[in-house]
Amino acid sequence: MYDVSTRKRAIALVAQGRSLNSVSRETGISRGAIRSWQTRLEPLPRMVAPLPDPPNDRGTYSYLLGLYLGDGCISAHPRGTGHYLRIACAEAWPGLIDACESAVRAISPAHTAHRVQGQGYVSVVGYYQHWPHLSPQHGPGKKHERRIALEPWQQAIVHEHPWEFIRGLIHSDGCRITNWTNRTIGGVSKRYEYPRYFFTNLSGDIIRLFTDTLDCVGVEWRMANSRNISIAKRAAVTLMDTHVGPKH
Q: Using N-to-C axis directions, what is the helix angle for 94-107 and 58-71, rounded to 10°?
């Protein structure tokens, strides 16, 4: 009853992501007929959205990039239609969870995100077809077992918004603590307390991205060991308190 061009048009509409019901209503062709044609005719390629440009909100992207490099991962939708970005946030820091969700919503074209409760943490999840394009550090295996390097357009954003990048890394894999020591002053031993920032990551590449950015903003740091960066000098801590601050 239907010629080949009519059948191909109906299948093309389905390939665009339309449901059988909507295509049937538009064309007047039964769902059963369309379903049977899908198995008889050579399937047409699925419409793919063009690759996105770098995000307009470059400061928020720099923050989200830091979060992703610390505690984020990307996984494909089971049907292959898109990807999920997941950022794990300790539930002890509700302010961090709010900031993370706001960043995912701002960068995702759909401006959506949701939370998934885990044991002691909350995953902030955003769905988007092109997360791997916006986070090209995505790949198989653990981050510390593969090379991590920023694309030129990412590096340009980090140079424009270094503090946002540092904040994202600290919020994911860093902390602000209070150290103490005993000092003898005038023959009397007194307890002396001082704040310190730590950043911990197994990836040497991510460590270098962090320390290179600290250098750019004039924050003095030292290697506590191969996986820990310490920021303890008073001027450096003051800068970090001004632009980053403790998690909350």
A: 120
Closest CA to 174 of 117, 94, 93, 107: 93
**Predicted TM-score (pTM) of this structure:** 0.77
SS3 129: coil
Q: CB count, 10 Å around CB of 129?
A: 16
Q: Please give the class, per CATH, of domain 58-243.
A: alpha beta
Phi-psi region of 187 (alpha: psi -120 to 50; beta: other; left: phi over 0): left
Nearest to 227 by CA among 207, 248, 247: 207
Q: What residues contact residue 82 under an 8 Å CB cut-off, 6+ apart?
A: 76, 127, 128, 129, 131
Mean confidence (pLDDT) of the chain: 88
pLDDT tens for 145-168 read: 999 999 999 999 999 999 999 999
**Rounded to whole angstroms, how far apart are CA atoms 45 and 17?**
11
Separation in Å, CA 199 to CA 196, 225, 228, 237: 10, 11, 6, 13
Listed by start position, the domains of the chain span 4-40, 58-243
